[in-house]
Design a protein that fits this description.
Length: 306
């Protein structure tokens, strides 16, 4: 019998009202929002539950609110019933910080402070950048098509779903090149910069300082890192990995395949939406998936998690 991998979503999954139903039923989930609010001196609960969406979508707000909502979902599941130990944890971009909280390496209070700082740095690092989702082309073809432009691959999310990142001045040229190469669709994403691209490299030293100010404890569960798709069992690996992650591609396809290689046959996503379980089905069609975003999905996920 295979094991379960826990997944934690990244920016873009946020929605007004996220994890509210779970927090109103499970005290441990409510406490996650209260902890985050106390750590930041910001009412994270109101931001996550009432928005408005425009405020929630600001990177510096999104990151701590989404992290708190995802930990709330995990805690609700843990409160609802004894969960089997996960084989491995994975988080997409911001979600890697959530995975570190779930694995015991970072306290929630430290994590929300770090990602608040990360969000501020990313928000101000590059106002001239943007990101495009490319549907219907493989990563190698995309890499060839955008060579010699300012764009790079930012997220290798699933076969036929890749995100590229670069200066807004190159968007029209890059879009035309990708469509000529056979892309079914090229969609501009709502982001405040060219995330996971070299233009974010300037963020790394300040992010490193924020990571260095946090308390790090031992990992209870291994985590597969975005930047190298390798399994890491030492918390000490992550400050440098996370510094690099902000300007490097998210190797999500390779990470998911590595998780399967580690024995994961089921993948459960904690937090709003089901983006990562959707990607899982495209990368690994035979695996079982579930997500925990409200009471109904929690009840459906418990048999997979036990």
């Amino acid at each position: 019998m295979g094991g379960v991998a826990w997944l934690f979503p990244g920016q873009g999954s946020q929605s007004v009202g996220m994890s509210r139903e779970l927090a109103e039923r499970y005290p441990s989930a409510m406490h996650a929002f209260e902890e985050a609010s106390y750590a930041l001196g910001v009412d994270v609960k109101t931001l996550a539950w009432e928005g408005p969406q425009g405020d929630l979508d600001q990177t510096a707000n999104t990151q701590p609110a989404l992290l708190a909502a995802s930990i709330a979902a995990l805690r609700a599941a843990q409160e609802a019933g004894a969960l089997s130990e996960p084989v491995v944890l994975l988080g997409h971009s911001l979600g890697e910080f959530t995975a570190l909280v779930a694995a015991g390496a970072l306290r929630l209070s430290d994590a929300v402070r770090v990602v608040r700082r990360r969000g501020e740095l990313m928000q101000h690092a590059d106002n001239g950048g943007g990101m495009l989702a490319v549907l219907g082309l493989d990563a190698d073809t995309i890499a060839g098509s955008i060579a010699e432009t300012g764009f790079v691959i930012a997220n290798d999310n699933a076969p036929g779903q890749v995100v590229v990142s670069g200066p807004r001045t190159d968007v029209e040229q890059v879009t035309a090149r990708l469509k000529t190469a056979g892309a079914k669709r090229v969609i501009a994403l709502r982001t405040s910069g060219a995330f996971h691209s070299p233009s974010m490299r300037a963020v790394a030293p300040d992010l490193g300082a924020a990571l260095g100010s946090a308390r790090w404890d031992a990992l209870r569960y291994p985590i597969i890192a975005n930047v190298d798709a390798e399994k890491h069992e030492q918390a000490a690996d992550f400050p440098k990995l996370l510094e690099k992650q902000v300007w490097s591609p998210v190797q999500w396809v390779a990470s998911m395949r590595r998780a399967q290689g580690e024995g994961a046959t089921a993948f459960v996503e904690f937090g709003p939406g089901n983006v990562l379980t959707g990607l899982a089905k495209r990368i690994l069609p035979d695996v079982q998936t579930a997500n925990v975003s409200d009471v109904k999905t929690l009840e459906e996920a418990l048999p997979v998690l036990r």
